[in-house]
Amino acid sequence: MNYFDAVVLGVVEGLTEFLPVSSTGHLTIAEKILGLKVDDPAVTGYTAVIQMGAIAAVIVYFFRDILHIIQAWGLGLVKPEYRGQLAHRMGWYVIVGSIPVGIVGLLAKDFIKSDLRTLWVVALGLIGWSAVMWFAERVATQVRGERELGMRDAITVGVVQVVSLAPGVSRSGATISAGLLRGLDRVTATKLSFFLSIPALLAAGLFELKDALGGDIHAGEAVVGVVVAFVVAYASIAWLLRFVAHNSIAWFIPYRLALGFGLIALLATNTIAAT
Is the dihedral of CA 269, 132, 173, 39 positive or negative? Predict the structure, then answer.
């Protein structure tokens, strides 16, 4: 991997991490185009590391909210009067909602990094989860806002986040859909998706750091990828929050289907290899 590869992958990560189109799927496709071995531990580790740039973007964008959540959560541990506040409850929602993906990600890490890193899985994930996104928007009531969030919402969204470990599904596509199915409005579902992404992606990046830097990828390429991902992801977060305030996530479905069926056609004709 060289610096050009690092910039390309950083842009792809930043653009797709929070849009419901699957960042892992797009990174896998980009890696194939760049001639990288998609199931190489160093390459899979690198994709997890540059996610740190996207996570940094979330933290910076929602810094005041996150600081308020941490303070209220900490105070609520010793002062009962803080426990009814949304910020205190949100702290528990993020902690509890992150447990499922943490457990499954750790137990199935080898399977996720090898067997699932194939373009067939990406194509099927893009197509299959598009149906869930369509259904979620179809039945969404959006009658509940941020103040109506409950632990059941956090657990449901957290469990569904596990599905996004499969490339092509999209973590944001999975979690926003789950929020809509729980009756949350799109902005609330999207913000919960952002907050739940922080522990999941941060843990994945730190865990994979040794593989990324232990292979043919040097610290310079890793830093470039993280910085580029941060800048692009920050812009993507701002755009997505404005978009979902007035538009359905179903707008992303035609693109997902076109990419998914396009991949199947290329794979079926042996134009490209699956791994």
Answer: negative
Pick from 112, 139, 122: nearest CA to 41: 112
Residues 77 and 91 sit within 8 Å (Cβ to Cβ) = no
**CA distance readout (Å), 142 to 166, 185, 268:** 27, 4, 40
Q: Could you tell me the residue ranges of all domains in the chain?
A: 3-268
The owner of tokens 């978009």 is 243
Summarised one tens digit per residue, pLDDT across range 159-183 is 999 999 998 999 999 999 999 999 9
Please report where in the chains the tokens 């598009």 appear, as a residue. Answer: 130
Strand, helix or coil for residue 246:
coil
Contact yes or no for 135/46 (Cβ under 8 A): no
Contacting residues for 151 by C-beta, under 8 A, at least 6 apart: 89, 92, 93, 96
Q: What is the pLDDT of residues 24-39, one digit of tens each?
A: 889 988 988 898 887 7
Position of tokens 């949304």?
Answer: 86
Give the whole-angstrom CA distance, residue 270 versus residue 263. 10
Ranges of H-type helices in 77-185: 86-107, 109-113, 119-139, 151-161, 171-181
Other C-beta atoms within 10 Å of 151: how many? 12
Task: DSSP letter for 184, please.
Answer: B
For residue 86, how far is the Cα from the chain centroid?
24
Backbone angles phi, psi at 30, to 5 degrees: -60, -40
